[in-house]
Task: inverse folding
């Protein structure tokens, strides 16, 4: 039995021709089945069945099913990172995300979602929303026992149901969460540094301006002083 | 009340007067038939047990994928390609990414190419083991063979789950690479698993190949001349079983397949037996490729640093790119008008095109052979109906 380079036939004649006894192939096959059955009692790699729900297989750290929304701090109502930018809504292949931006009474966008719904009966667990979100807000969950008898209402997850703390994320996907946290911290520091620099610059400019004004005033005062000859 | 005689039906344009014989039996095989590999229907006309005519009926699993893709972004179509041939999502991903990369002229880093080859060849192993199991099921040996095949498949799916996050719907390839890098230790685990695979193959071969029932059922069944297959556009193991050494990995090397040493198994007669055997031989070659790829796996980027995930736009143009999927040539034809969505998106699904010669293979044989021949074509309805 050998695969061959293009020209010679590869599918070899059946090994049955070696046997003069008819039915030998069948018996050989039965021996394999028998061996498999016997081994299934003592060989670990042949005991493949897991007695769910009594036994469970640990899920892979990379496993994904439905998305969740991450929030900072304690309160999901205020801590959601989502800015309702709707990028995920646009990229979601089956279009199962529905977002409404929260606005104040003047119609100004508050950069947070008023409504954030995911219809998990439509969601196909692709993970594209998590991939495209630029604000580290949406991630894939690993929770899988979410069957429900209610066909409509409870299959639309609202933002309260979707919200999960960053601690939850860190527990679920430590590597990803650590990377995100480090990046966010670096970004925040950079932002703070930039803000501080800006403030310092503004302050310096202001001081310089004041100083110049003071000097000009002083000069003018000096110029106005009686007895001084005009320049 | 309108009398019956007043209603006249025009003759169907497809009506074949030769089949209007009272002695012939018209059987609608499927769409809910255990042997049809999904929702496929065959309208079979039988003379006793002998097939006189066979008309395939497709479309029960039609999801309008190609049209939907024209209205969604390039990236959004990627997870839908998983659902084409749902046994082999990773090769579907690759074929689509390959076409978009050709369209937009995107480079793929070396490491990403290796990851793609590794996942594609593992997919081939899954497909071919599952094929062996299903094929035995079609023959009436429902159970053991498929269970053994699925036991191995589950172990490969474990690897896929760690890598892509999903056992089947992987959504893994991106334009310019892969979505994520191999997790720590993944390559070693894959190597360790592959070391056990030849033993499984030996066992499966011992289990099946000498079996007299299998030989009696498959030899000299469903063979067609190689020329007919070539003219019919048949590709993949079905064509190679008939002795035509056409494999895109060699004929039009894509990715980095020119770096590996492997052979193309070919058959002699192209009957069901050869089609069955060719898959076993291909698995051995896939193993060779996998071992080489895992040994050579370079460090580096898993996706091109300039690859765009959000808001990807392809330049106006047209591209067709195909890869050798486990079932045959899997191609994507894309036409872009320079916007975020493709203007035209068309798939060349191997299972669908391999099915076109079904009637020619079945005429004059028994009904039981039809089931076998359909099994030997190795179709997945997700891909046939799209
Ligand atoms: S989850 Fe992310 S991408 Fe989606 S709206 Fe919120 S911030 Fe935007
Ligand atoms: S996982 Fe995919 S389908 Fe589900 S909400 Fe996210 S983008 Fe949409």
Result:
């Amino acid at each position: 039995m050998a695969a061959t380079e293009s020209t010679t036939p590869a599918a070899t004649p059946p090994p049955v021709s070696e046997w003069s006894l008819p039915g030998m192939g069948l018996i050989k096959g039965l021996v394999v089945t028998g061996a498999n059955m016997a081994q299934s009692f003592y060989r670990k790699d042949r005991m493949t069945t897991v007695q769910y729900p009594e036994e469970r297989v640990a899920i892979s750290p990379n496993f994904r099913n439905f998305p969740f929304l991450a929030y900072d701090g304690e309160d999901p109502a205020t801590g959601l990172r989502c800015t309702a930018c709707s990028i995920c809504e646009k990229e979601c292949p089956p279009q199962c995300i529905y977002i409404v931006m929260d606005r104040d009474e003047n119609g100004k966008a508050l950069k947070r979602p008023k409504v954030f719904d995911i219809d998990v009966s439509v969601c196909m667990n692709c993970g594209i929303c998590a991939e495209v979100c630029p604000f580290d807000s949406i991630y894939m969950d690993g929770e899988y026992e979410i069957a429900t008898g209610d066909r409509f209402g409870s299959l639309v997850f609202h933002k309260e149901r979707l919200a999960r703390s960053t601690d939850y994320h860190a527990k679920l996907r430590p590597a990803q969460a650590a990377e995100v946290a480090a990046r966010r911290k670096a970004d925040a520091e950079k932002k703070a540094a930039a803000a501080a620099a800006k403030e310092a610059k503004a302050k310096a400019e202001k001081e310089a301006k004041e100083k110049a004004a003071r000097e000009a005033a002083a000069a003018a005062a000096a110029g106005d002083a009686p007895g001084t000859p005009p320049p | 009340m309108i009398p019956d005689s007043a209603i006249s039906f025009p003759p169907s344009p497809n009506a074949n007067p030769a089949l209007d014989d009272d002695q012939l039996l018209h059987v609608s095989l499927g769409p809910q038939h255990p042997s049809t590999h999904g929702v496929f229907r065959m309208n079979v006309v039988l003379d006793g047990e002998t097939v006189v005519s066979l008309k395939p009926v497709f479309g029960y699993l039609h999801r309008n994928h190609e049209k939907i893709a024209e209205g969604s972004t390039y990236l959004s179509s990627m997870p839908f390609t998983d659902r084409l041939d749902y046994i082999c999502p990773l090769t579907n991903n690759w074929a689509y990414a390959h076409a978009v990369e050709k369209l937009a002229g995107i480079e793929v880093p070396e490491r990403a190419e290796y990851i793609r080859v590794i996942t594609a060849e593992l997919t081939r192993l899954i497909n071919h083991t599952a094929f062996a199991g299903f094929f035995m099921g079609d023959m009436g040996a429902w159970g053991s063979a498929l269970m053994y095949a699925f036991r191995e498949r589950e172990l490969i799916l474990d690897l896929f789950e760690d890598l892509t996050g999903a056992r089947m719907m992987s959504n893994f390839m991106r334009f310019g690479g892969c979505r994520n890098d191999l997790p720590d230790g993944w390559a070693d685990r894959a190597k360790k698993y592959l070391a056990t695979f030849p033993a499984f193959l030996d066992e499966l071969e011992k289990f099946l190949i000498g079996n007299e029932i299998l030989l009696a059922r498959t030899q000299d069944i469903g063979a067609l001349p190689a020329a007919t297959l070539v003219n019919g556009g048949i590709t993949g193991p079905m064509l190679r079983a008939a002795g035509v050494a056409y494999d895109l990995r060699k004929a039009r090397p894509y990715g980095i397949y020119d770096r590996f040493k492997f052979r193309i198994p070919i058959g002699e007669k192209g009957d069901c037996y050869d089609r069955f055997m060719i898959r076993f031989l291909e698995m051995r070659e896939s193993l060779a490729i996998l071992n080489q790829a895992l040994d050579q796996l370079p460090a580096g980027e898993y996706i091109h640093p300039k690859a765009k995930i959000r808001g990807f736009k392809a330049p106006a143009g047209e591209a067709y790119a195909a890869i050798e999927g486990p079932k045959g040539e899997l191609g994507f034809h894309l036409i872009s008008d320079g916007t975020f969505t493709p203007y035209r998106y068309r798939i060349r699904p191997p299972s669908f095109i391999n099915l076109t010669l079904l009637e020619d293979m079945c005429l004059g044989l028994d009904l039981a052979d039809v089931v076998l021949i359909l099994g030997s074509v190795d179709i997945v309805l997700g891909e046939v109906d799209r």
Notes: Confidence is low (pLDDT under 50) at residues 1-11, 13-17, 226-231 of chain A. Chain A touches chain B through 45 residues (CB under 8 Å). The first strand of chain A starts at residue 67 and ends at 71. The CA atoms of residues 46 and 68 of chain A lie 37 Å apart.
